[in-house]
Amino acid sequence: MALSKLAANSFDLTDNYALTGTVTGVVSTQKLFLIKNIDASSSGTVDFVNGASGVVLDNTYKTYLFRCVNIHPATDNVAFQINFRDGGSNYDATKTTTFFDSGHSEDDSTVASLAYDTGADVAQGTGNARLSRNQGNGSDECCSGDVYLFNPSSTTFIKHFNSDFSGYDRNNINYRGMGGGYCNVTAAIDAVRFQFSSGNIDSGRIALYGIK
Amino acid sequence: MALSKIQPASMDLTANYAFTGTNSISSASSGAYEEKKLATLTASSSSTLSFTSSIDNTYNIYKFRFINIHGSEDRKNFLINFRDGSSNFDATKTTSFFQASHKEDDSEAQMSYNTSGDLAQSTSAANLDRFVGNDADQHICGELFLFDPSSTTFVKHFIARSITIEGNNAAQDAFLAGYCNVTAAIDGVQFSMSSGNIDSGTIEMYGIN
């Protein structure tokens, strides 16, 4: 009798099938793709460079997310920072940023505030942008948070980014730092650097995701 | 004649094909989806909604998404607490809390730190939203990220943002952040209202690597 339809048990399901057709009838919910984890280990910087070590930071994705977990500095009272590369080898893209934070001290009296921080923003500068302030380096102290970078490969538009971090200030204060801004360049951003304002990143993980 | 090629119409596409071979489609689209839903709790006049399992070192980050959380009482606060061992949700924590709000009649629009909403080395539950209305159409939606709860080295940071409608008909955009100031692992998370029940709504927990 002629075969009219193949059932699942007609296939060698342990074999490799290079299916190249279009999947229909299924709604994909996949949106967030892990590209690269980098674990700091007494690192001066943590760099994500397009095309290096499996890093993708180009037009493959419209949005990139950097998720930082338990970032612990070697030096006390330092700011966690970010910068961007817009060609060449230097992390010096011109940028304008905003930064504000809410803080609350463990003693409930020293700090309970929400304020814009003019010491942390950048106005058409090439320096680093702040992610978290006055980070302590006690053995259990660290900061964690996210940075979104939008369409870094565009050669038409400026490149927006924003950040949201919870940190542990050296004076035992919780600071939530929220930053936003743009690289005021039309050159593509092809690399991103994280570092502390002084000293190494002792430990911590930064994960890069692509979002579709 | 032997079959040399199978057309799609020749396959039973309603069956389950458990392929265990290697997926060789292009790498650009083969990345694993890195947010996995681990649990969903649905409130039904619930005094608390508690996640007491699956919070461990399997994932680096846990996300809680709360959808249409409706309180049984008017102008109460939506709360979260953490378990750091034993059975009590009482991890010591310090938090900061600020909010932007805007009344429907445009009579008030402000953004400020809220000293009534924060905690200083307290074991009490932390505010996610304050003075939430309980009219039939009023509720809360938002997300909270908990970083590396299984760490026994570091404090455990969390960040939340949610939107609600206050009992006085004002939109409230609320921002909570802080840390459980403990090195014990966090293995449970509990949501509640400051008074009364969570009438309805769902909270989803995701693991992220």
Poorly predicted runs of chain B are: 24-30
Mean pLDDT score of chain B: 90
Query: Structural class, from secondary structure content of chain A?
Result: mainly beta
Q: Name the poorly predicted regions of chain A.
A: none
CATH topology of chain A: Jelly Rolls
- % residues in beta strands of chain A: over 45%
Number of domains of chain A: 1
Arithmetic mean of pLDDT of chain A: 91
The CATH architecture of chain B comes to Sandwich
Measured between the Cα atoms of the first and last residue of chain B, the distance is: 50 Å
The CATH class designation of chain A is: Mainly Beta
Quick one: overall form of chain A?
A: globular
Strand segment count of chain A? 12
Principal-axis shape of chain B = globular
Task: Kindly list the characteristics that best describe this protein.
heterodimer, A: 212 residues, mainly beta, Jelly Rolls, eight-stranded antiparallel beta sheet, four-stranded antiparallel beta sheet, 50% strand, B: 209 residues, nine-stranded antiparallel beta sheet
